[in-house]
Automatic annotation (TrEMBL):
Residues 27-477 form the Major facilitator superfamily (MFS) profile domain. Belongs to the major facilitator superfamily. Sugar transporter (TC 2.A.1.1) family. It comes from the Eukaryota. It comes from Selaginella moellendorffii. This is Uncharacterized protein MST7-1. One of its GO terms (cellular component) is membrane. Gene3D superfamilies: MFS general substrate transporter like domains. The keyword Nucleotide-binding does not apply. Coiled coil: none annotated. NCBIfam families: SP (TIGR00879). It is found in: Membrane. CDD domains: MFS_STP.
């Protein structure tokens, strides 16, 4: 009988009725503002750390090295190599990593909406501390509070979007998080370009303007509905069904509602989600929750986006030219996100992953070759080669934006069953932030040590991750979120790991 329950659920998936409603679109837009904040914080730090007044006040050693008239070509790769400066950027991510485990608890016990609100409040506090910083300690504490906001926001928002969206539109609506992230990066680069000439306090304006999207997330979040999945899981059945009817635009939601009830029944038997996530049923999802966010950062994208002005200045671009180039790459990644929204529910996740991976490898290798051949014993690259590097960086960002940028968040958020969804998202966010922290902390030192080889380092990882997707990631397009288990049962490799439907129900009910 247990097996029959699962078979019936699989059949119900074809009876789901839903359409895009203005209600669900507005809710998803407000929720996705968490991505706007995440992107703003990624983009703003690189521009601020390249501003002379900021460096002179907090990192005078870097300021003196930057303006040294006797610097050699090798020194250009190394002039920003300072662990304190790296800590300014990376402290946000280690704080987010720790915060996401607390966010997992609030997401599961209190709901997705309260977790989003906590993240917004933390962002507001962090923005205020950064804008008013009078010493390095205050600056770092502000970054830590922003990290708490990232931990809570990135934990709740992708799950919220996946649960609110109808299955056949889930990819596009979930990609609103990535679109908002890329818009945040673009806005941050534009702000930095505008504030660089406001001296000596332009950097304060750049950091303080994070309060604008934080306010949108916090006060807009007050009007968000809770997801039906969370309401049903926490026992609010009538309210959950009412919200489901409202966001689907129809009263014929019995098939999807029944799936939610069954998923909730299983979830209630699981008292320790982090322990249950290691069971065979969740093993493929656990592997994806680790490798997808890890690979997302091993593309090198955050190094390029976080340190774009620093990177371009290291290659001999002037201050204004480096920030202008950063604005250009920010615009490209926004365009790439729009492409993904248009294609993710038509072409599928796997095809976008692989196309983006191939493009990134080609661009990184080409950049390394140009720097190896043309950037030797010179103060800076020629205008032609500088333009070519910027073009290649833009194509690299394009490849990332339509593949790993959004899909690295989308796929983990849609593959976990309800009983381990909050725990799975916590692992995804924690791994993402762990690798973000490690690369942010090490990138300037790696650039100094590897020089042009840094691009070959990331290209090698991009080749590995493209093969990983080809062999191990099944297609999840158009699969109802509570029916994702069947995807793994049909995959050539994972079917040997996931228990068959005939025994799965008994195993789940046996977990305490």
């Amino acid at each position: 009988m247990a097996g029959a329950a699962f078979i019936g659920a699989d059949e119900r998936a074809s009876n789901y009725e839903a359409r895009i409603t203005i209600y669900v679109v507005l809710a998803c837009i407000v929720a996705a503002s968490g991505g706007l904040l995440f992107g703003y914080d990624i983009g703003i730090s690189g521009g601020v750390t390249s501003m002379d007044p900021f460096l002179k006040e907090f990192f005078p050693v870097v300021y003196r090295r930057k303006h040294s008239p006797t610097a050699s070509t090798d020194d250009h790769y190394c002039k920003y190599d300072n662990q304190g400066l790296a800590a300014f950027t990376s402290s946000l991510y280690i704080a987010g990593l720790i915060a996401t485990f607390g966010a997992s608890y609030t997401t599961r016990v209190f709901g997705r909406k309260p977790t989003i609100l906590i993240g917004g409040c933390a962002f507001l506090i962090g923005a205020g501390l950064n804008a008013g910083a009078v010493n390095l300690a205050m600056l770092i504490i502000g970054r830590i509070m922003l990290g708490v906001g990232v931990g809570f926001g990135n934990q709740a928002v992708p799950v919220y979007l996946s649960e609110m969206a109808p299955p056949k539109f889930r990819g596009g609506l979930n990609m609103l998080f990535q679109l908002a992230t890329t818009l945040g990066i673009l806005i941050a680069n534009c702000v930095n370009y505008g504030t660089q000439n406001i001296k000596p306090g332009g950097w304060r304006l750049s950091l303080g303007l994070a309060a604008v999207p934080a306010s949108l997330m916090t006060f807009g979040g007050l009007f968000l509905p809770e997801t039906p999945n969370s309401l049903v899981q926490r026992g609010h059945l009538k309210e959950g069904k009412a919200i489901l009817e409202k966001i689907r635009g129809t009263t014929s939601v019995e098939a999807e509602y029944q799936d939610l009830l069954e998923a909730s029944d299983v979830a209630k038997t699981v008292k320790h989600p982090f322990r249950n996530i290691f069971k065979p049923r969740s093993r493929p999802q656990l592997v994806m929750a680790f490798f997808l966010p890890a690979f997302q950062l091993l593309t090198g994208i955050n190094s390029i986006l976080s340190y774009a002005p620093v990177l371009f200045q290291s290659l001999g671009f002037g201050g204004s030219a480096s920030l202008y180039s950063s604005v250009l790459t920010g615009a490209v990644i926004v365009f790439a996100s729009l492409l993904t929204i248009a294609t993710v529910d038509r072409w599928g996740r796997r095809k976008l992953f692989m196309l983006g991976g191939v493009l990134m490898v080609v661009c990184q290798v080409a950049i390394a070759i140009i720097l190896a051949v043309k950037y030797q014993g010179q103060e800076s690259l020629s205008k032609q080669n500088s333009a070519l590097v910027v073009v290649l960086v833009c194509f690299f960002v394009l490849g990332f934006g339509w593949s790993w940028g959004g899909l690295g968040w989308l796929v983990p958020s849609e593959i976990f069953p309800l009983e381990t969804r909050s725990a799975g998202q916590s692992i995804t966010v924690a791994v993402n932030l762990l690798f973000t922290f490690a690369i942010a902390q090490c990138f300037l030192a790696m650039l100094c040590a590897f020089k042009f080889g840094i691009f070959l380092f990331f290209a090698a990882w991009e080749a590995i991750m493209t093969l990983y997707v080809f062999f191990l990631l099944p297609e999840t397009m158009n699969v109802p979120i509570e029916e994702m288990i069947n995807v793994w049962r049909k995959h050539w490799f994972w079917k040997n790991v996931v228990p068959p439907a005939s025994v799965d129900r008994e195993q789940q009910l046996a977990v305490k």
